[in-house]
Specification:
- By secondary structure, the chain is an alpha/beta fold.
- It has 2 domains: about 300 residues, 3-Layer(aba) Sandwich (Rossmann fold); about 80 residues.
- It is built from 16 helices and 14 strands.
- Strands 5-4-1-6-7-9-8-11-10 form a 9-stranded mixed sheet, with helices on both faces. The chain has a 3-stranded antiparallel sheet with strand order 12-14-13. Strands 2-3 form a two-stranded antiparallel sheet.
- α1 packs parallel to α2 and α1 runs antiparallel to α10.
- The longest helix has 27 residues.
- The chain starts with about 20 loop residues before the first helix and ends in a 10-residue tail after the last strand.
- This is Three-Cys-motif partner protein TcmP.
- InterPro entries: Tcm_partner.
């Protein structure tokens, strides 16, 4: 997590480490939980003896922080290594023949001082013997290091499973052409990308330097430049939301990924700049697992990205950070209730259209069609179908047509959903 900023300085000799903010700790939790879920999902078949995975941290930083209490907090490289170790332990519980998760880990940073500090942190934590064995430290710009790393992933075999952690400081360090090259080479690759959307939009204007900056990351064609001045003049607040929608659509297209989910993160402060924590993947299951993790860490929702609901984390609404429990008056409970109500409203508008368009489809096909337009994961969609299925407004049978589901929560991915001929049912 290297940042081109005086706040982020690592020096092992003087024990100088940056202070980590609460919003970054949430991001670390998501990375850890996702990696552990990733391994467990891929190894759910008990007969699979081995998993090979490449982890690429393109902005790795120096490996250690201080939290607000002065305690040590490890950076994303050590979090990734520990998450894989923990997952390997879990998949071997009660087994006599252990299964193995083999990884190769590439930690890249543009500053040599950060790499030197990371090397020292790894050594201090008893991981020094892994350096140059399955942990590789590189001082380089990420895009320059990518071709060599790509070849190493290919040589590692087993389908090129790779997770890229790209925690850039703003939005301009990783062009989407680089991300597209990853997905074009490895169908099983995934990317976790920090994208500082507020930093981009705040200074967005139809000027040559600005257009060049957006063109450098391959998103220029997705900005309505000719309409920008009029939008700013006539829609002083809404224009930013419209640009967000253009950007989110452009990112999905230019990344080359099939599935995307956006978790917005707002740092603590009076006028913080919100950024997106984007997950890109070609596998539907990866998208659904990440959404379930986002729900666990979300404390705010938004309709700004699209007509659908998206969730995120706002440090200003976290009572563990603000210590203002008395002022929030049950805000966490309100978030759960309001979010459930909004997601039901969204699905009541979205699902009938899809079900009528194709009157018979598998539940998996339905989920694929909504994946990029809602934060609802499988469990939320199943619950939303409970009334329609129990009232027989929808018919759901197993793939062989023998067993009929009695409630939405019993639906499986391979089940076939049949909508009625008339478009008059309401299930929410």
């Amino acid at each position: 997590m290297a940042k081109d900023n005086e706040k982020y300085i690592w020096d092992w000799q003087t024990r100088t480490f940056p202070v980590i903010d609460p919003h970054s700790k949430v991001k670390h939790q998501i990375i850890s939980e996702y990696l552990q879920s990733y391994v467990q999902v891929l190894m759910r078949n008990a007969l699979i003896p081995e998993l090979r995975l490449s982890i690429v941290d393109g902005f790795c930083g120096g490996g250690q922080y201080h939290d607000l209490d002065g305690e040590a907090h490890f950076g994303s490289p050590l979090i990734a290594l520990e998450a894989v170790r923990a997952a390997e332990t879990l998949i071997n519980v009660n087994r006599t023949q252990p299964r193995v998760v083999r990884t190769q880990n590439f930690f890249v940073d543009v500053k040599q001082s950060n790499i030197d500090c990371l090397r020292a942190v790894l050594t201090a934590q008893g991981l020094g013997q892994r350096i140059n064995r399955d942990v590789f430290l590189t001082c380089s710009d990420f895009t320059q290091a990518l071709p060599a790393i790509t070849q190493r992933i290919k040589d590692f075999g087993h389908g090129g499973r790779a997770l890229f952690l790209l925690d850039q400081y703003a939005y301009g360090d990783v062009p989407f052409s680089s991300i597209k090259s990853i997905f074009s080479r490895f169908k099983n690759a995934e990317v976790l990308l920090t994208f500082n959307v507020d930093a981009l939009i705040t200074y967005l204007a139809d000027r040559k330097p600005n257009r060049k900056a957006i063109a450098n990351i391959n998103l220029e064609q997705h900005i309505p430049w000719s309409e920008l001045a009029a939008l700013k003049a006539t829609q002083k607040h809404e224009w930013q939301y419209l640009i967000q929608r253009c950007l989110s659509k452009g990112i999905l297209i230019e990344s080359g990924a099939q599935f995307m989910t956006v978790f917005f993160i707002t740092p603590l402060g009076a006028n913080p700049r919100t950024y997106w924590f984007i997950h890109l993947a070609n596998q539907y299951r990866a998208n659904d697992v990440m959404k379930s993790i986002h729900w666990r860490h979300g404390n705010q929702f938004s309709h700004l990205l699209s007509p659908s609901l998206f969730v995120g984390y706002d440090a200003n609404r976290d009572v563990q950070v603000t210590h203002q429990q008395d002022l929030l008056l049950g805000e966490e409970h309100h978030f759960d209730g309001a979010t459930h109500e909004r997601i039901c409203t969204e699905l009541s508008e979205l699902l009938p259209q899809l079900l009528y368009k194709q009157r018979e489809q598998t539940f998996e096909a339905l989920m694929h069609s909504v994946a990029n337009f809602t934060m609802a994961d499988e469990e939320v969609v199943k619950r939303s179908l409970n009334v329609a299925v129990s009232n027989q407004d929808l018919e759901v049978r197993d793939k062989d047509g023998r067993s009929k589901r009695r409630k939405g929560e019993s639906i499986k991915l391979s089940d076939v959903i049949t909508a009625p001929a008339q478009s008059t049912f309401f299930f929410l």
